[in-house]
């Protein structure tokens, strides 16, 4: 590997001239035709695209797609496409196809795919917002949002070994992504984007979106909202940032907040179609879903990521259980304190109490907290194991051991996590303990932090042991009354 590239000028030269010259020239030439849709410009757009046969074919394929050509009149030439679809649309398609082609034909790394998916999503959101406030220039807004992260996309698409090194540095615990990038490249991704846009002469709107002084310009505001919505959507449609942005958008477009949210969701669905139309089908899975079940899962994942241990709640729940050993308390109260203490107190994302049922022939879910709790309560059923097919639930109840599975000490028991069980709990670490009432076997308590993938901690295991022992003592006290 040669000398490392460092600083704005070095990276602009390397990415624009060495790595992406074909993309740069098409983008530049198409952009220069933007000033007017006169006959001269129309001819120039046709000439720029016809210069590259593969690009022409792809632009015509997009022009003939249902999304851009609902009437399905077959378009065979670029000039016919311009007549039917409008100059701006064809220019936009040429730019977008060039971008996808220029970046995704290499070995596309995950960071690039995620950014490109986010860029298509931002572009569609921004254009649709602009439709409410601008009589024209919506296509320019689309391009500006699509190219908003151009510097970072070009880096992940073209920087080879240096991209590998930066990706590794960014994965270190507590790394500030922006700062690491700046130190590593000698320039921020934002500055790199501005450098490339300027070098490629990419029109005003694209550059303006990076100028904080111009945030009140309607076109710039549409771009900024589109970009922010595409980022917030990654945390689920119900997250705080999204609600704030939907409010801003409602005010900007004079829509009601409910209608603004419907427009945002419709734009997300449209973005999936647009990405597929531009030959970037592999990006569709990375654009946040609007299907209610998927949305619910995304929101649960967000909640799981935000769940932190709450020591005050943990102490309160322990005290409640301690009192229930001596006072008259029913099973529901005991389970309430147990689940609250483990889920909100100890910060365990998923907690399940499975009890022996149907004449002690199987385990069924009595209570659950966290992801998929309803499904566990309605559908979970695990037969008590047969001698030839033992599983961890029965083993723990018989041996009366509390286990931390997924650590070296319990490695020998991994075979007891059988396939039917794995379909419910997935792979990875979990805690499991017997639930007893004196000598009587009641069931098991299971807990994990599977949704966010966080590692379980020693102090969580200590709390888990303490809570499950106390709950068993409460149940024993109940049976003695």
Automatic annotation (TrEMBL):
- Gene3D superfamilies for this protein: 3.30.450.40, Hypothetical protein af1432
Q: Which residues form the HDOD domain?
A: 20-216
Naturally occurring in which organism (per UniProt): Pseudomonas fluvialis
Pfam families with a match to the protein in the record: HDOD
Kindly give the InterPro entries that the UniProt entry links to this protein. Answer: GAF-like_dom_sf, HDOD, RNase_Y/CdgJ
| Lineage top rank: taxon | Bacteria
Output this protein's name.
HD-like signal output (HDOD) protein
